[in-house]
Amino acid sequence: MPRAVLLLSGGLDSTTLLAHAVSEQFTVHAMTFRYGQRHAVEIEAARRVSALYGISDHVIVDIDLRTFGGSALTSDVAVPKDRHDDVGIPITYVPARNTIFLSFALAWAEILEAGDIFIGVNALDYSGYPDCRPEYIAAYERMANLATRGGVEGTNRIRIRTPLIDRTKAQIIQLGLSLGVDYAATQSCYDPDASGAACGHCDACHLRLKGFAEAGVKDPARYV
């Protein structure tokens, strides 16, 4: 079974991604980040999901992006609620987050001699983040194979796997349900309350609720 590093946040997309990678017969090594995010309850969701799938190698990486701020997820800036207009890249964008996460995953893939890195980015039903686009992923994959021993020597070419990138949220949910995903174990909200209940009004909640509605399925998440 080929090895893969998979970025697991505990959210809807990354949990579907994990179910997909397992169904594709990959031996998954999961990586979750505690990066100073205000919605750190997602880390517990990632642990739950990892346990459900019997992932024996799940690491929690500690970095602190609050050092730089610049995002409503890593500073005291309020998380936008009920945002229905297109205002460009929103304040919930964390500068260079996927580049940082992928770089950690790339280092681990080198150690494991894993040729595949899975990331649950999506370029359809998403918040407009620049590091979720296909051209970004293609550029990162080129860089990864220029920057690693296996890439240079041709012994371990890296592929950045993004099977959700061109699916709507409803299609992602339908895929997950077909793979037996328990979405009650997941956490998507950017601004949950102390108990972990979702706010129902941030961009992540809107996208999730819209996806479940379009899929014709009730969202099992807890909401305030």
Structure description:
The structure is a single chain. It is built from seven helices and five strands. The chain is of the alpha/beta class. It has a single domain (3-215), classed as HUPs (Rossmann fold). It has a five-stranded parallel sheet, sandwiched between helices. Helix 1 links the parallel strand 1 (3-7) and strand 2. The longest helix has 16 residues, at 97-112. The radius of gyration is 17 Å and the shape is globular.
- How many alpha or pi helices? 7
Q: Can you tell me the CATH class?
A: Alpha Beta
How does the major sheet shape up? 5 strands, parallel
CATH architecture: 3-Layer(aba) Sandwich
Number of strands: 5
H and E string: EHEHEHEHHEHH
* Range of helix content: 25-40%
When the domains are counted, the total is 1
Label the overall shape.
globular
Strand content: 5-15%
Unreliable segments (pLDDT under 50, ≥5 consecutive)? none
Distance between the termini: 42 Å
What structural class is derived from the secondary structure elements?
Answer: alpha/beta
Briefly note the CATH topology name. Rossmann fold
